[in-house]
């Protein structure tokens, strides 16, 4: 089994404060994540694309200034963690591209075929969350994997914030031949469960201890201590799953002499 990529999703938990954003990078690093991810959008454009005029004040409050990109990338490099950011509209792709190794598409944009294809010329791997996608939409996305010039990974996701465990239906990840899990539950165990179901990418929201409870991402984000436990559980599941080969384990050696053979 390949190493599971754990992405710490900072989301809006920076609260519009660059120092808080840097602190989130530090938390993700110390907790053992492989990448830390933010969100890059223009509030007016996002509200228009999503037909969500009522959400414009919230988007404006948590809009990340473009000049942050260089600062966040520099801090992530200093910490030794990959910097990522979700892009929500096409005109920002060329702005973000120099700062990221791979692109991320969120669930609400996953069914926008033109937006997906706009990522192709940049020649970078793409990760797509599939919340709110029905089977037909997921089949279309799986079809793109056959011709995509770089890795195109699809994440199982339930777009409910937070996601109740009874709504999770994590078996769908394997049934739909998806690559990983974008987690909106409040649990510290679901990353490990996803690894047991075959996930090679896990994305989970994290926050700071002093994140404002009114923050829109607060309810489905884990505190630093919780996120550390989440990553630890995910790594334990990864170790338990092994490499897929069936051999006599070294731990079995003391008992090998008791085997009865014809």
Tags for this entry?
262 residues, alpha/beta, TIM Barrel, eight-stranded parallel β-sheet, 8 strands, 34% helix
How many β-strand runs? 8
Portion of residues within helices: 25-40%
Mean pLDDT: 96
Q: Judging from the principal axes of the Cα atoms, what is the shape?
A: globular
Name the quaternary structure. Answer: single chain
- The CATH superfamily bears the name Aldolase class I
The CATH class designation is Alpha Beta
Low-confidence runs of at least 5 consecutive residues = none
Approximate strand percentage: 5-15%
Strand order of the largest sheet: 3-2-1-8-7-6-5-4
Number of domains: 1
Task: Determine the N-to-C terminus distance.
Answer: 34 Å
Gross CATH architecture: Alpha-Beta Barrel
Query: Could you please say which CATH topology applies here?
Result: TIM Barrel
Main beta-sheet annotation: 8 strands, parallel
Protein architecture, described:
By secondary structure, the protein is α/β, with parallel strands linked by helices. The chain has a single domain, classed as Alpha-Beta Barrel (TIM Barrel). Helix content is 34%, strand content 15%. The chain has an 8-stranded parallel beta sheet. Strand 4, helix 6 and strand 5 form a beta-alpha-beta unit. Helix 1 packs parallel to helix 4 and helix 9 runs parallel beside helix 10. The radius of gyration is 20 Å and the shape is globular. The two termini are 34 Å apart. The model has no long low-confidence stretch (mean pLDDT 96).
Secondary structure layout:
Elements: E1 5-9, H1 18-30, E2 35-40, H2 43-49, H3 56-62, H4 68-79, E3 82-87, H5 93-96, E4 103-105, H6 113-118, E5 126-129, H7 135-145, E6 152-157, H8 171-175, E7 180-183, H9 190-196, E8 201-205, H10 224-241
Parallel strand pairs: 1-2, 1-8, 2-3, 4-5, 5-6, 6-7, 7-8
Helix pairs in contact: 1-4, 2-3, 9-10
């Amino acid at each position: 089994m390949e190493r599971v990529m754990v992405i710490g999703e900072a989301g809006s938990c920076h609260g519009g404060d660059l120092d808080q954003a840097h602190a989130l990078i530090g938390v993700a690093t110390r907790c053992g994540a492989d990448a830390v991810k933010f969100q890059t959008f223009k509030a007016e454009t996002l509200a228009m694309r999503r037909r969500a005029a009522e959400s414009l004040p919230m988007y404006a409050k948590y809009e990340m200034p473009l000049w942050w990109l260089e600062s966040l990338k520099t801090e992530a490099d200093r910490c030794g963690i990959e910097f990522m950011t979700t892009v929500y509209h096409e005109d920002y792709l060329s702005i973000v591209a120099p700062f990221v190794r791979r692109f991320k598409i969120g669930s609400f944009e996953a069914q926008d075929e033109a937006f997906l294809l706009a990522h192709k010329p940049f020649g970078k791997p793409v990760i797509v969350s599939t919340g709110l996608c029905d089977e037909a939409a997921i089949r279309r996305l799986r079809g793109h994997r056959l011709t995509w010039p770089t890795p195109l990974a699809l994440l199982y996701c339930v777009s409910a914030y937070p996601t109740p465990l009874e709504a999770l239906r994590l078996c769908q990840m394997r049934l739909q031949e998806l690559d990983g899990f974008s987690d909106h539950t409040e649990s510290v165990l679901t990353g490990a469960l996803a690894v047991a179901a075959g996930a090679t990418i896990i994305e989970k929201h994290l926050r700071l201890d002093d994140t404002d409870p009114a923050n829109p991402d607060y309810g489905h984000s884990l505190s630093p201590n919780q996120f550390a436990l989440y990553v630890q559980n995910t790594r334990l599941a990864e170790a338990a799953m092994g490499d897929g080969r069936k051999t006599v384990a070294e731990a079995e050696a003391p008992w090998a002499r008791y085997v009865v053979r014809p």
